[in-house]
Specification:
Blueprint (H helix, E strand, L loop, with lengths): L18 H8 L3 H10 L6 E2 L5 E2 L2 H16 L4 H54 L1
Antiparallel strand pairs: 1-2
């Protein structure tokens, strides 16, 4: 059974996210997130004295870049490391554009729902005046 993404709500005022929340955000296992930490130097979450990982938004953004390269583009770990060395700013820009597009889509869905409600209201009002 495939895991489903549970996106992190970055609109909240939280500073840190657990490894479970990060793994769920990408629909991957916690062990994969830990593995990527060992393989990619750009992923370095803060750790408490007890060893609990605390991920910031920037950490999640770094994981998103690795996720895109490895899971979506199908690069090997070596290929992803090379891409990060040569075109990290390009990948960051793509990720930023994708993130903005997701936000725009959410706004459009809200607008569509509002237009539907307005249309329904006007239709109801016009039926009411005809009778």
């Amino acid at each position: 059974m495939a895991k489903h993404k549970k996106p992190i709500d970055f609109d909240s005022k939280r500073l840190y996210y657990s490894i479970k929340e990060v793994a769920d955000h990408f629909a991957v296992n916690v062990s994969l997130v830990r593995f990527w930490e060992t393989e990619f130097s750009n992923i370095k979450p803060k750790k408490t004295k007890g060893g609990t990982r605390q991920y910031t938004r920037d950490d999640v953004r770094e994981i998103a870049i690795v996720y895109r390269l490895v899971k979506e583009k199908g690069l090997t770990l070596d290929g992803a490391r090379q891409a990060l060395k040569t075109n990290k700013s390009d990948e960051e820009a793509r990720l930023e554009v994708l993130s903005k597009l997701v936000e725009i889509k959410k706004e459009l869905v809200i607008l569509e729902d509002e237009f539907d409600m307005l249309h329904h209201y006007q239709k109801y009002r016009s039926n009411e005046t005809e009778t």
